[in-house]
Amino acid sequence: MAGSDEAEKPDMAWRLIGAVVALGVGYATRKAIEFGWRKTTGKKPPADPNSLETGLAEAVGFAVVLGVGMEVARIVATRSAHKRYQAWKAIPEKAERVIKS
């Protein structure tokens, strides 16, 4: 029974690593998207998309680009970090098997 509980919950180290990766990637991605928006449109990204001074098309366009871009970056970074974490975690297990044999 204890094994099934452990399989369902990620360990605390991975939770912490995943959170740090997501925060870092989120910050970097937002800055990259804002930079790309400035280069593409020649304007600063809308600071407040709810403002009536911002055009509807511009507000929706920025929201879509930012939302999709950030989610894709988060998924890719989290999956990559998880694969590396699993490989790193497997090293002691492999070493233990070698020592026992």
Percent of sequence in beta strands: under 5%
Give the helix/strand class.
mainly alpha
Count of DSSP helices? Answer: 3
| N→C terminal distance | 29 Å
Low-confidence stretches: none
Overall mean pLDDT stands at 83
String of helices and strands: HHH
**What shape does the CA trace take?**
rod-shaped
The domain count comes to 1
Counted beta strands: 0
Q: What Rg, in angstroms, do the CA atoms define? A: 21 Å
- Largest beta-sheet characterization: none
Helical coverage, percent range? over 70%
Describe this structure in words.
The chain contains three helices and no strands. It is an all-alpha fold. The chain has one domain. α2 runs antiparallel to α3 (56-100). It is rod-shaped and about 70 Å long. 1% of the residues are buried. The mean pLDDT is 83.
Topology:
Elements: H1 2-8, H2 12-41, H3 56-100
Question: Features of this protein?
Answer:
101 residues, 3 helices, mainly alpha
Nutshell version of this structure?
This protein is 81% helix and 0% strand.
